[in-house]
């Protein structure tokens, strides 16, 4: 239900346009497909994905000898599900260690909802009875440490921090020692998100990762890239940059509730081949949902 509510804007916009299209074109023809392409592109499904999808739709329509435009909707759902299921790495769950500490690193530019996502995940793990610690690795942005502490208090988990301006790698080292001595299950690590100085940011990420890898073989167990769904193609560009800089294992797509362009989920999966693991559907603690493709696609058309 949460999932469905969060997609209201996308669903309404999408189904309004589809219904309008079907009303205007009772019969399927070239113009219908051209307008359909436009609708999908506007929903941020992604240019390449749309072309591929519409090509496949055309073939399917021919093969099944479909005349009525209203029947095309069903095939879209099938094809969207296909796009995902044809991929091997349909790994949407998190790599959580059964024994010992799981370290999750969060990357992404400022403002995308990184701190909020860390808070929400901390809450989720705590609900599951796990002992959680947060590492205040964004030592660059003024207020970032305090903001994480606000979430820490809200959820009831401790934050390991140093002063603003200190070395984030040193914060990580401290946090790992603290997590060990307190026998924590999960360590969620914030990082800086300034993109003005890309080279420095990427170097900093590398250093942070090296410290974690050295302290705990096999860690970080996840590197989650946080992207803001409302930023559309900008989110795609950020994703490409971070993918080049580090081994991103999954994406958290935030603010899906605030956009009518929820098609970005499809574009990300198709064009970047990184699984979307969670979606943010609001600002509250429990507004984070594991991403479920079928729910998502059926949600769009429900
Ligand atoms: P950060 O700079 O990446 O750490 O971003 P923040 O966590 O501070 O989030 C930036 C803003 O986005 C805040 O006002 C959050 O409440 C809001 N936000 C984060 N996630 C979501 C979401 O899933 N939905 C909505 N509607 N707002 C969100």
From TrEMBL:
Residue sites binding GTP per the record: 108-115, 190-194, 254-257
Membrane topology note: Peripheral membrane protein
Alphabetic keyword roster: Cell membrane, Cytoplasm, GTP-binding, Hydrolase, Membrane, Nucleotide-binding, Receptor
Catalytic activity: GTP + H2O = GDP + phosphate + H(+)
Annotated InterPro entries: AAA+_ATPase, P-loop_NTPase, Signal_recog_particl_SRP54_hlx, SR_rcpt_FtsY, SRP/SRP_N, SRP54_GTPase_dom, SRP54_N_sf
PROSITE patterns: SRP54 (PS00300)
Broad enzyme group: hydrolase
Database matches in Pfam families: SRP54, SRP54_N
The keyword Zinc appears for this protein: no
Enzyme Commission code(s) on record: 3.6.5.4
Residue ranges crossing the lipid bilayer per the database entry: none
Subcellular localization, as worded in the UniProt entry: Cell membrane; Cytoplasm
SRP54-type proteins GTP-binding domain boundaries: 275-288
Quaternary structure, from the entry: Part of the signal recognition particle protein translocation system, which is composed of SRP and FtsY.
Biological role stated in the UniProt entry: Involved in targeting and insertion of nascent membrane proteins into the cytoplasmic membrane. Acts as a receptor for the complex formed by the signal recognition particle (SRP) and the ribosome-nascent chain (RNC).
PANTHER family (UniProt xref): SIGNAL RECOGNITION PARTICLE RECEPTOR SUBUNIT ALPHA
Record family assignment: Belongs to the GTP-binding SRP family. FtsY subfamily.
Family annotation (NCBIfam families): ftsY (TIGR00064)
Name this polypeptide is given: Signal recognition particle receptor FtsY
Provenance organism: Caldifermentibacillus hisashii
